């Protein structure tokens, strides 16, 4: 009975952290700490054609300059690491919360879907830029988080002397 209570308490704690994490992610990516509303206010007259023409459809177009430190090292680090680190907890927590999401393929698709929703919201509501590179970096972050999850699982199994599946 105590074991079931511990597991249930752990699940509640992880779910609570996950909800808080998603709220922070929404605030940082979509709302941009409140700046997005100002952006939307000034961009409300942009036509759908202008919005669609402003999307970066070509992969790695913004990533390569960032890797070279352009436009500045600060901006490059904030954009590259920011997107990757922002989605890392997502890839770590998903397999803790959902038993069926325990393979890299499922992490890829779920993180891609969430990132695509975020990019679409930014496009529709004029709350930022829509960029294929953000999708790449966000999904990479989730996969990195899943990798850390898998690594911790292996370490835990070795410590406990359990066989790896």
UniProtKB/TrEMBL annotation:
Keywords associated with the record: Membrane, Transmembrane, Transmembrane helix
Residues in VanZ-like domain copies: 18-152
Signal sequence interval, chain numbering: none
InterPro entries xref list: Teicoplanin_resist-assoc (IPR053150), VanZ-like (IPR006976)
Membrane-spanning intervals of the chain: 12-31, 75-94, 106-129, 135-153
Keyword Membrane assigned: yes
Protein name, per record: VanZ family protein
């Amino acid at each position: 009975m105590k074991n079931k209570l511990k597991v249930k308490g752990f699940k509640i704690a992880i779910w609570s952290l996950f909800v808080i994490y998603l709220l922070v992610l929404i605030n940082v990516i979509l709302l941009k700490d409140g700046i997005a509303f100002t952006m939307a206010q000034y961009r409300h007259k942009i036509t759908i054609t202008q919005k669609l023409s402003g999307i970066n459809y070509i992969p790695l177009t913004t990533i390569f300059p960032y890797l070279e430190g352009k436009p500045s090292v600060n901006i490059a680090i904030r954009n590259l690491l920011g997107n990757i680190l922002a989605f890392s907890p997502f890839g770590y927590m998903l397999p803790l919360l959902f038993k069926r999401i325990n393979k890299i393929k499922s992490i890829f698709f779920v993180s891609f879907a969430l990132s695509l929703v975020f990019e679409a919201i930014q496009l529709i509501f004029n709350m930022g830029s829509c960029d294929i590179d953000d999708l790449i970096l966000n999904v990479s972050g989730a996969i990195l988080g899943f990798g850390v999850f898998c690594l911790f699982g292996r370490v835990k199994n070795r410590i406990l002397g359990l066989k790896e599946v």
